[in-house]
Design goal:
The complex is a heterodimer.
Chain A (H helix, E strand, L loop, with lengths): L15 E7 L5 E4 L5 E2 L11 H13 L4 E11 L5 E3 L2 H8 L10
Antiparallel strand pairs in A: 1-2, 1-4, 2-3, 4-5
Chain B lengths: L5 H22 L5 H10 L2 E3 L4 E6 L4 E3 H14 L3 E4 L4 E7 L4 H9 L17 E2 L13 H12 L3 H4 L7 E4 L13 E7 L5 E7 L11 E8 L3 H18 L7 H8 L1 H15 L8 H10 L13 H6 L3 H10 E3 L5 E6 L10 E3 H14 L3 E4 L5 E7 L3 H10 L14 E2 L14 H10 L3 H7 L4 E4 L13 E8 L2 E8 L11 E2 L4 E2 L3 H15 L7 H8 L2 H9 L2
Parallel strand pairs in B: 6-7, 7-8, 16-17, 17-18
Antiparallel strand pairs in B: 1-2, 2-5, 3-14, 4-5, 4-13, 8-9, 9-10, 11-12, 12-15, 14-15, 18-19, 19-20, 19-21
Classes of the chains: A alpha+beta, B alpha+beta.
The structure holds protoporphyrin IX containing FE (HEM) and iron/sulfur cluster.
Protoporphyrin IX containing FE binds next to loops of chain B.
Chain lengths: ~100, ~550
Amino acid sequence: MTSPLEQKKIKIAGPSVVTANRTWDGIVVYRTAAKSWSADLSEAAIVRNSDEAKALLAEAVADDVGAIGPYIAPVQIGDDGKVLPGNLREQIRRTGVTIGQPAQV
Amino acid sequence: MYAYDEIDRTLVNERVSEFRDQVKRRLSGELTEDEFKILRLQNGVYLQLHAYMFRVAIPYGTLATNQMRALAHVARKYDRGYGHFTTRQNIQFNWIKLAELPDALEDLAKVGIHAMQTSGNNMRNVTSDQWAGVAPGEIEDPRIWSELIRQHTTLHPEFSFLPRKFKIAITASDHDRAAIKIHDIGLRLIKNEKGETGFEVLVGGGLGRTPFIAKTIKHFVHGRDILSYIEAILRVYNQYGRRDNIYKARIKILVHELGIEKFSREVEDEWQHIRNSSLQIDDEVIEDIRSRFTYPAYEKLPHMPDELRQAAADPDFEAWRKNSVAPHKVQGYSIVTISLKPTGGPPGDATAEQMDALADLADKYSFGEIRVGHEQNLALPHVAKRDLPALWKALDKLGLATPNVNLITDIIACPGLDYCSLANARSIPIAQELTRRFANHELANLIGRLHINISGCINACGHHHVGHIGILGVEKNGEEVYQITIGGRADENAALGTLIGPGVKFDEVADVVEDIVEAYLALRERPEELFMDTVKRLGVEPFKERVYATR
Ligand code: HEM
Ligand code: SF4
C-alpha cells in the first residue's frame, strides 16, 4: 500500500471516498455528503470521477479544524450496495489492527 | 539513577504549559494543522493510521519505578492499556487523543519524563547501552557522557534546526549493545596509552533507503574535547546542508559523497578553530554529572548462592536463566533481560498491569531501577543472584519470562501497516507467526543466537538491514510482498544483509524463514557455529538455492 500521503495527482480508478483523522482524537473519519465527517464508512460521500473527487477533497481540506490529512481512498461497493474499503490499508484503518492488542488478549 | 536538576524540571514544566496552550489554539481553529504540525512533532506527537501516536523519551534507557508507574498510568488513563517500547529507548502510545495529550504530558512531567527530542529534524535523544554502569569490563558509565551531550544539545540552536534528524549512540563496552555503527554519530568510550578517557568517533551510519555502516573518523578524541568535536562535525554537516540542496539529507549521504578522508579533514579544520573554546569541558562539569548518577549500595554476596544452586535442578528455570541472565560487574549480582516477545505477541508491547508489576519487582529486586534496550526488551540491572529464582517465578506469572532472549523469536519489528501511515506492508503479524513457528524452546536453543528484524517500509524502523535475517515489506500491485536479506548484523562487526532473491508473499514468509533455518542447521560445521558465521563462510548462495528450489 504505497502511502496515500504521497498522493500527488488525483486520478481515481473506481468509487472512492475522502478520509482523514478527526482532529481532537485522531480517529478515522470519512467525508459525508452533508459536508461533515462520520466515523461510519457507510455514511461517506462516494465519488466516481476525478472532478467529483477533487471537489470533495477541496471541501474536506478546507475543514481543517474538523479533521487532518484528508486524502482520496478507494472503496468497493458490494451487490447489496454495502460500502467496503478498497484495499488492505483502508481495511485496517476501518476495522483496526489485525493483531489483537496486548491489553485485550 | 540520575537526578535531574532544577533547570531541567523548569524546562519540562514550561513545555507542558506551552503545549497545552498550543493544543487549545489548534482545537479552536486558531492554529491550522500546517502551523501546528511542527509543534506537535516537537512534543513527540505523530499521526498514525488510527489515531495520534505519542512518543516519550527514556533517556539512555534508564527508568525509575515511579516513572514506570507513570507510563502505566498514561497507558491506562489515556490509551488502551498498553505501550510499545521501541528500538530507540522510547515508549510509544498508539491511541492518544490530542485533546488529552497535555494532561498526559503533565502527568509524566511530574516524574521528570518528557517527549522532547523524540521527533523532528533535531538532535534525537542520545541512546546508550542498556547495561551501562553495570556491565563487567566497561571503561566507564557511558550515560555520564550521554547526559553531557544531552545537556549541551537540548534546545541548542545548532542542533535544533538540522537538515534532518540526527542520532547519537554511545557504548563503553567491547560488545556493542547500542548499535553505534548505524547512528549518525557513534561513540565508543576507550582509554588511550596514557590511560586517559576518550572516544573513538564514528560517523555516517544509518539505515533507511540508503543504508550505511558508520566509519571511524577519529581514533581518539579526548573526553574533554568531545563536545567541540561533535560540534565540528555538526558545523561541517550544516554548512553543506545549507549550501545547496543535494546534501540536505542525512549525514551518511554527505560522508559517502565527500568520502571519509575529505570529510574528516574538514572536520579537523573546523575543530582546530573551536577546540580550545568554551566548549572544552572542565573536569568539574563531568564530576557534577557523575555525582548525579547514583549506584545502589550493593551487598557483599557469594558468587554462587544456595538458592541458585537449588533452582538449577529445574530445567525451566535453567532455560530462562541461560538466555536472560548476564554477568554483572559486582559479584553476586546479575543483569536480567525481560523478554517482551511472548509467543504470538507483538514485539515490544507491555500492558499497564505488566508495567506496574515490573515496577514492584524492580523495587523489590533491582534497587528500583529498570532499563530499556534497543531490542524492544527491558532489563533489571541489579538483581542479587539469590533472588533470581523468586524473580523468575514472579515474571513467569506476568507472562514476562519467555526464555527467548537473543534467540530466533526475540524479533525486532516496526509497527508496520497495522499502525503506521507510511507502511507498505504489515510487520507485526509476520513476527507473531514466526514466534509461533519457533515456539519450541529446544528447537530455538538448538538454532542459537539469531536475530530477525522486520520493517514495513524502506524507512527501516525495524532495522531490517542489520538483522541476521532481515525482512522488508514492500507493495506490489496492491499486495504485500516481503524481501528477505541474510547476513546483516548490528553489533561491533556491523554489516548490511544481502538480498537472497525475489520477494515472497505474506503467507510464505514464515515458510521461507524455516527453509533458511533448516539450511543453516544442515550446513553449519558444528553447533557453536552461529547462523551469521555460516552465512559469512558460505555466502548467500546455498540459502538462496534452498529457498527458491521449490518456489
Ligand atoms: C508516522 C511515521 C513513523 C512512525 C510511526 C515511525 C515509527 C518508528 C518506530 C516505532 C521506531 C522504532 C522501531 C520500534 O521499536 O518499533 C522507529 C525508528 C526508526 N524510524 Fe521511524 N517511524 C515513522 C517515520 C519514519 C520516517 C519517515 C523515517 C525515515 C525517513 C523513519 C526512520 C526510522 C529509523 C531509521 C528508525 C530506526 C531508529 C534508529 O535509527 O535507530 N521513521 N520509527
Ligand atoms: S519502517 Fe516504515 S512501516 Fe515501519 S514504522 Fe517505520 S515508517 Fe512505518
